[in-house]
Amino acid sequence: MMSDLSADLPVQLHTLSVSELVQGLQNKQFSAAELTEYFLQRIEQQDSAVNSFITVTPEVARAQAKAADTRLAAGDAPLLTGVPLAHKDIFCTQGVATTCGSKMLKNFVAPYDATIVAQCREQGLVMLGKTSMDEFAMGSDNESSYFGAVHNPWDTARVPGGSSGGSAAAVAAGFAPIATGSDTGGSIRQPASFCGLTGLKPTYGRVSRYGMVAYASSFDQAGSFGKSAQDCAYLLQALAGFDSKDSTSVQVAVPDYIAELQAARQSAGDKPLAGIKIGVPSSYFTNGLSADVEQVIRAALKQYEDLGATLVDIHLTDTDITLATYYLLASAEASSNLSRYDGVRYGYRCDNPANLQDLYTRSRSEGFGNEVQRRILMGTYALSAGYFDAYYVKAQKVRRLVRDDFLCALSQCDVIATPTTPTTAYRIGEALSPEQIYVGDVYTIGVNLAGLPALSLPVGFDGQGLPVGLQLIGAHWQESQLLQIADGFQQATDFHRQLSPIAKN
Prior knowledge:
By secondary structure, the chain is an alpha/beta fold. The protein has a single domain, classed as Amidase signature (AS) enzymes, CATH 3.90.1300.10. The chain has 16 helices and eleven strands. It has helices at residues 18-26, 32-46, 58-74, 115-122, 165-172, 189-194, 229-239, 257-267, 291-306, 319-337, 356-367, 370-383, 388-410, 434-439, 445-450, 479-492, and strands spanning 53-56, 84-88, 126-131, 179-183, 198-201, 221-226, 277-281, 310-314, 415-419, 454-461, 467-473. The chain has an eight-stranded mixed β-sheet, sandwiched between helices. Strands 1-3-2 form a three-stranded mixed β-sheet. Strand 2, helix 4 (115-122) and strand 3 form a beta-alpha-beta unit. The longest helix has 23 residues, at 388-410. It is globular. Residues 1-7 have low confidence and may be disordered.
């Protein structure tokens, strides 16, 4: 597939894996500049149908690609030098707008880079632009963005999931080979499921949060999107590590994810997952789960058994409890974090305020969308005098019990497998209540309550041809094992190689 890429660049460049792109760059089958122009052209020609980017940065990309080619020519370039990527617009980028999908920050240009943005640049990755997202990462469909809804490349009448829907859509459409995202309650895994991608949320503290605009600080975690587990491993290698500027960053050794994944492949026999125990919680297969989705998930679990894994019945906290706990705590943290947007220091400011009270009230009412306002109000109520102990404190106690349930379950198995979402992607503009939208996170939020790593990988399609994702949950710091177990499935199947209609063009 790589042999004829040197003369005229083929239209299939966007279908290559990160490993193939790395090989092509190192073998001089194409340059970083050529690769960058290829993706910029795809964005320019086709993103109008998807709306995945808020800001495209061709000048930045070309300058970084030129620098990458210089490093490649010198022969001492880092592994990912020249590979393009997109950043979710929640990460600060020096000199480039960082909007968080909100009117509140539509003109905000960060004076510094988020740590992971700086790390990606140092590793030679080329930034194509900033992708759309639900406003302040609060949403599950990418319809709450001030810059308009993002469309799913598999069916542009449907949502891509959220809040990192722009990043997922960009990769699924072939506008970027990999992309960063953030995950507060499923915001990487849910769009990965809806868009037929692999999306990884690392352990809380594995990847720096410095320069990531906060929604809920004890939940937020940066992570990666790719077509495969191997793609995600490449990007995680660039992102992971201790950061002294982030008080929530944990100083723990970072393994060589790529080398360990390759070693697992080489040692794999007829039963590559022999000895692996996969926990399956019956509480995640109850009312609300689409019959189509359940059928695909059950077939994927059977495939895992065929690959040598053993399925184990486990107990996890009832999903109704985790859902209520998450939305109370996350909203409380949002209320606190978003209080800084007051029309005084930075961000949107209303016109001609009559007094300070009017400045605060109108700036926040006009600058925040409905969903953000809803969660601020819920969180403020939970934190208010008379309700703090009854709601917030109680929810924190339940959070610890949820964590304990996960740790107990993981003592009986290597990983936990569940559906990523109860349904496949629904239609844009579908008249869903906030409660119905929140239920879309019912299988993913427990992971964030417990601070565990998890990923979603594509395992099939429903009756309408829409992707279905399987969620794998691991023990703390076990991203490498998660990636290997996902890769074992992907080595035996081709769901991750299927292209969306837009990626076929």
